[in-house]
Amino acid sequence: MDVAAFESEAKRILKKVEEECGWIYETRHADDTTKGKINYTIWSDVFVCPECASEVVFWDAAVDKRTGKVHNSFPCSHCGVELTKRNMERAWETRYDSDIGETVRQAKQVPVLINYSVEGMKGRFEKTPDENDLALIKKIEESKIPYWFPKERMPKGQETRRNDRTGITHVHHFYTKRSLWILAAIRSRCKSPQILLWFNSQLTNISKLNRYRPGVSFPYNPLSGTLYIGSQFSESSIFIAYKNKLKKLITAFKEIESSSLISTKSTTDKNIFLADYIFVDPPFGANLNYSELNFLSESWLKVRTDNEPEAIENGVQGKGITEYRHLMTACFKEAYRVLKPGRWLTMVFSNTKAAVWNSIQTALTNAGFIVANMSSLDKQQGSFKAVTTPTAVKQDLVISAYKPNGGFEERFQKEAQDEESIWDFVRTHLKYLPTTKRQGALMQFIPERDPRILFDQMVAFYVQKGYLVPISSQEFQIGLAQRFIERDGMVFLPDQVAEYDRKKMTSGEMPQMSLFVSDEASAIQWLKQQFTKKPQTFQDIHPQFLKKISGWQKHEKLPELSEMLEQNFLPYDGKGEVPSKIHSYLSSNFKELRNLAKDNPALKAKAKDRWYVPDPNKAGDLEKLREKVLLKEFEEYKQAKKKLRVFRMEAVRAGFKKAFQERDYATIIALAEKIPNNVLEKDPKLPLWYDQAVTRTGVE
Predict the structure, then answer these.
(1) What stretch of H or E contains 27?
(2) 625 falls in which pLDDT band (50, 70, 90)?
(3) Which tens digit of pLDDT belongs to each residue from 326-357?
(4) CATH code assigned to 262-403
(5) N or C: which end of the chain has fewer CB within 10 A?
(6) pLDDT (tens digit, 9 = 90+) per residue, 102-151?
(7) CA-to-CA distance for 346 and 365, rounded, in angstroms?
(8) Residues 546-578: b if buried by 16+ CB within 10 A, e if exposed
(9) Is the distance from CB of 205 to CB of 241 less than 8 angstroms?
(10) How far is CA 218 from CA 169, 215, 222, 234, 259, in A?
(11) Do residues 141 and 177 touch, judged by C-beta distance below 8 A?
(12) What local confidence, expressed as pLDDT, does residue 359 receive?
């Protein structure tokens, strides 16, 4: 870019427009003869007192001029009755809008404060608009702007139509006539892309979206992520706004020195070149309606977003969570295509809804990526919603995923139905995972190294590739124990565990994970956690279990605790030697039981009826029993004629897995229709099976 040419052209445009339209910002100083230039004008809503029907200017009644504080309640200046914004009606104005040829009814707003400067005098001055100022505004309102400006009706949408109720229905209504005039004059002279970039940079700041915030020195305060117009807005000088922005752009352009080619593109663009690294900041479900928010600036630029492939949730566009997932999958597939093998994609994501979170993970997996790490990103300053909304996520997540290298992909194609391909996948995947995580001085548990998560990752990879999983969960756990090293419930490669042990010695003990029990899967994991620490009897664990299930999901069938114990754990019946896991716990926690043989009567009596976590080699029969029970229940769901209201999600998962292995995609699709959409989408596993079933039904 020729920065000097850009600077010269922008300054030339500003000079020409200021010479032509400078009168628009003229005001008089206190001596009534000296001319000043307006820096900004504060406008305020006008309401009607419900008691005396008098007009009440919000600025005059509610704002403390000394402190700038806005009071929640205030007395009517005419009758003294106590008022709030909620118990007043707006005052309205009806006028003929010659730009669209219609009579419009809009909420009344009036200028209440002018901030201005006088050449040759230090500082800035403030005044209440006088007769001359009001006459100037009237003259501008009655004049015809001699340049083109956008007059389109705001399209249907949650944000684009939010101001209809106050009569702000078209693009030009978002600006005062004075701002509109100067913007149109500048726009008529913008020819190059760089100049248009400069012009586009201030279109929101100098609109009515710019809230007046007492006590805030920053001049531009639109509420991000919305087209909200406050009860008081600041009409800033366009000349000041563009002169300041020009300085910042020139500084930025001069500092661009890089031999690397960095590009910002949409993943719906099929002309993206091969990439070494991709950073993605995708739409967070329904958090922001991007094409709607862009409509003001796009109207000035005479372009339009094609929102058909826009990857968001939007009821007006007919896009729910399913459509969002499919659109995100298409975007990630394009990212996967252009990313070089073995390279990384980093994504920042934030959403409180489990369905949206699961959809983004499913989309990544369906595209071929493998998630290696998730970490929180503290941006120091949160968004408006994150700061003010109790349910909002305070920190974004950083998700790191990789595209498998070419060597592994080639080996997998040859060995997919061989069990060795599973261990090849695990070895390759473990290399990509972080060895340690810290929070302050403490080491953190790395969920991606959890044996269960590794199994889920392996299954997801096989499903995405369209291959049958050649191994059961218990066989996988046994294979892990034989081939890899476990530390603190995490799996490592031999060279990684040495680094982990070394860092752990300097970091102290691992913090205990806290599990929130909401369904059968999390309940089983919680029980495993309890029995690993302390083998217990049914009487010991039952009251603890009842406390943990207070957050149980309404749609999830709650099995009896005894049933979950029988299908997932083993009890010691007092016969034979005490199992090693119970023996280890008792001898460590009871002095009188130390150094006793496993068949000692006192030890056996203390151990009797305690449940414990079985070794992987002994858990195969339990898994078969559990799977048989789950599949029997799944058969009952298949026969159901109506939508399922309460069901066992683990049974649905087991049934989906079996149906996929048997290429019975119709069963998966049919059963999915019986599950409420909000439940299906919130599950971390079912959408993957369902999407693949739909895809393969179309293929086969």
Answers:
(1) strand 26-28
(2) confident
(3) 888 888 999 999 999 999 999 887 765 667 77
(4) 3.40.50
(5) C
(6) 999 999 999 999 999 999 899 999 999 999 999 999 999 999 999 999 99
(7) 14
(8) eebbeebeebbbebebeebbbbbbbbbeeeeeb
(9) yes
(10) 28, 9, 11, 11, 36
(11) yes
(12) 80
Nearest Cα residue to 226 out of 153, 128, 136, 158? 158
pLDDT recorded at residue 384: 38
Which residue has tokens 């060995």?
415
In 50-193, the DSSP E strands lie at 55-57, 74-75, 82-83, 89-90, 92-97, 102-107, 109-117, 125-127
Structure tokens at 342: 């073995």
Which strand (E) or helix (H) includes residue 26? strand 26-28
Mean pLDDT of 364-372: 89
Instruction: State the Cα–Cα distance between residues 554 and 682, nearest whole angstrom.
Output: 13
Q: What is the mean pLDDT of residues 293-307?
A: 89
Asked if residues 555 and 646 have their Cβ atoms less than 8 Å apart, the reply is yes
Which is nearest to 561 in space by CA: 583, 542, 588?
A: 542
pLDDT of residue 438 exceeding 60, the answer is yes
pLDDT band per the 50, 70, 90 thresholds, residue 390: very low
SS3 39: strand
Half-sphere exposure of 281 (CA within 13 A, CB side): 6
**From CA 568, how far away is CA 471, in angstroms rounded?**
19
- Taking CA atoms, 193 is separated from 9, 133, 200, 493, in Å, by 12, 37, 10, 53
Residue 283 and residue 221: Cα distance in Å, rounded? 23
Percent of the chain with pLDDT over 70: 92
Judge contact between 519 and 512, C-beta under 8 A.
no
3-state SS, residue 152: coil
The reported pLDDT for the residue numbered 531 is 92
Q: How far apart are alpha carbons 523 and 561 in whole angstroms? A: 9
